[in-house]
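Hey,
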Amino acid sequence: MERKMKRRDFMKTTAAAGAGLTRVGSVSPKEDTDAYYDRLADTLDKLPNAFPRTKSNIEILLLKKIFTPDEAWLASQLTGIRESIDVIAGRTGLSVEETTKRLAEMTQRGFVRGSVNSGKFRLAPFIVGIYEAQLWDMDHELAHLIEDYMEEGGAEFMKPRPAIHRVVPAQSAVKTDLILPYDDVKAVLMASKSFRVRDCICRVQQDLLDSRKCDFPVHVCLNFAPVERPPSPRDISREEALDLLDEVEEIGLVHSVTNVAKGFYYVCNCCGCCCGILRGITEWGIENSAASANYYSVIDPDECTGCGKCVSTREKIG
């Protein structure tokens, strides 16, 4: 007997189960809850990062796995622009107190961005946002749903320009005085005050699918902030963050950050076989799924040992 169900067989049972994917939640009987998820899918697709609809509607099963009906209904009422609680409450018909409570809970689950202190909230994109927040809830079922969604058209979110992510050069490979300010990850780390590391959700997902093609480490995703944060088990020191950056460069991983000039607060350390963004290049034919680094590589014959680390992911990303 196989240890894990094949993905296509799994999807047949999942489709038959239908509403069985939905988390427990209390909803109004006035409207079919399927409409909440359909509206949420359309709302997510209107955000800059997009959430492409598919012919199979597998994205609805995916959203049912992640959101309760109540959460899907409220999330579908939000936009990509931060709005005050009063405005959101007025739109939904909920009290300000109930709206605040629900949005605070959804912020903790990674569905919404904002805070009670600011009094403003907006809907998080599916990628980068809601998907990454599923790290602690990722299971075999969710891993299959995400993989099939990407293969059935979800990966199309990477086609529009500008790209969501950009790669930055290996810091040890470029002379310090030649690194552009928005590519200098080490300088950003030096200016930050708190640092955390977590598992790479892409490798966790591929492990659950039993389809990982590499043996790169999982605990390598860095995030940092310009302010002190409440203590977390994932906290590390600045020195440990810098050491991790050097270690992942040494084994051949690619630094990837959000595609903005200022204000990026995480570094993904990616491989072309697991990373959803880089697989756009390596598997799904989306050549510009990530914005290329502002440099090109050359071989230094005096230093090259022929180890081959640069030939796989880094060669394809450019």
